[in-house]
Amino acid sequence: MEWVHSCNERGLRIVGQGANVRTWFAFTLDLWNLYDYSPAWNQATQGTTAEKLAKLADRVLRGKLRDEEPMLASIGEQTRPGNLTITKTPGHPELERYIGRKVSEIAAVESKHPVDAMLDIAVAGELKVEFRGGDATSSNAKMVGEVMRDPYIIAGVSDGGAHTKFFTGGSYTTDLLTWLVRDTKELTLEEAHYHLSFLPAQAAGFLDRGYLRQGAPADIVVYDLANLRRTPEWDYEIAYDFPANEWRRVQRAEGYRWTLVNGEVTFEDGRCTGATPGQLLRNRQVGATTLSAAAK
Fold first, then answer.
1. Are the beta carbons of 262 and 236 closer than 8 angstroms?
2. Range in 93-107, 177-191, 211-225, 255-269 the model is least confident about
3. Rounded to an integer, what distance in angstroms lies between the CA atom of residue 203 and that of residue 168?
4. In which region does residue 25 sit, left (phi positive, over 0), alpha (psi from -120 to 50) or beta (all else)?
5. CA-wise closest residue to 59 among 74, 71, 44, 70
6. How far apart are CA 30 and CA 120, in angstroms?
7. Distance of CA 125 to CAs 85, 171, 259, 292, Å?
8. pLDDT of residue 291
9. Closest C-alpha among 106, 24, 103 to residue 69
10. What is the CA radius of gyration of the chain?
C-alpha cells in the first residue's frame, strides 16, 4: 500500500482495491477454465465433454499435467489439486465415499499423485464431480482489517462477474459489515461506510453521492446489523436466471430493511418493490429530475 500513499502524497489521486470477502472456488471440470495458463491443462480442458474425458484419461497427457501442476499455484494454493475437497458426485453414488475428503488425503490412501487422484475421480464422475478450494481470499481478520482501514483502499473484489459458475464475490459488503465490523470489531461502522460508500463514489467521480447530506440524492441503505448475514453463509445457491436458462452461483442476504434510490424504496426486507427511480448518469452529470427529487 506504500505506493498508493506515495502517489497521493505527490498529488496523484490513486486508490487501491482490497479483497475483503471470505469466498472460495467451487467447480466441475466440464466447465472449469482457470487452469488455462498451464499449456497442458489448457489443452486437456478444452473441447466437448467427450473430448475432455478422453484427454484427461490419457496417460501420456497425464504425465504433462503432473509436471505442470506447480503452475496451478498462480491462481492460489487453495486451487491446486491436492488442496481441493470433493463436495458433490451427482449421478454417481459409488463415488460418494469421497465426499468431504481432500484430494491429498485420497491420494495418500490410494498411493497416487494428487493430479491422478483428482482426475480419476473426475473422469469416473463424467466431469460432474464438484471440487471446492480453500478460501480464495484471506480469512485473517486482523490482516484484512488492517488493509481495509487504509484511507485509500476500496472494499470489494476485481472479478466483476466473470466467473459466475465458480464463485460469487458480491457478498463482500455483507461480509465486511458482519465479519470485520460486528464480529471482530476490526473496523468501526464509520470506517465501513467510508470504504463501502463514500470512497468508491468519490473515486468514480460521483462527488454528490456516497454520503448523507441535505440536497444530495437520497440513495440510502437501512440495515439491521445484529441480524445481518449471508444466506447461505458458507455455500452457494444456484440461480437459473441468465439468458438461455444458464445458471450462476449466488449468495443472498438477510437483514437489509430498505434500499432507497432518490428517496424512493426499491427493496424492502429483500423484496423488490418494482420502483425504478434511478437514472443513467452520463459523464458524471446528474439529471435535472434527480436533482429535483433530491431537493424535496
1. no
2. 211-225
3. 24
4. beta
5. 44
6. 14
7. 15, 31, 44, 60
8. 41
9. 103
10. 23
Distances (CA, A) of 176 to 65, 163, 229, 259: 38, 21, 10, 18
Question: Measuring CA to CA, which residue among 140, 153, 152, 222 is closest to residue 186?
Answer: 140
Q: What is the pLDDT of residues 258-283, one digit of tens each?
A: 999 999 999 999 999 999 999 887 76
Strands in 264-268's sheet, in edge-to-edge order, are 220-223, 256-261, 264-268, 271-272
Does the pLDDT of residue 288 top 60, yes or no? no
φ, ψ of residue 100 to 5 degrees: the values are 85, 0
Q: From CA 36, how far away is CA 24, in angstroms rounded?
A: 19
At 179, which amino acid appears?
A: W
What are the Cα distances from residue 204, in Å, to 14, 67, 125, 165, 197?
Answer: 11, 44, 46, 28, 11
Task: Break the chain into its structural domains and give their ranges.
Answer: 2-21+138-295, 24-135
What does DSSP say about strands 85-88 and 130-135: parallel, antiparallel, or unpaired?
antiparallel
Cell of 130: 464438484
Identify the three-state secondary structure at position 228.
coil
Q: Give the strand pairing for 16-19 and 153-156.
A: parallel
Residue type, 51: E
The grid coordinates of residue 184 equal 471482530
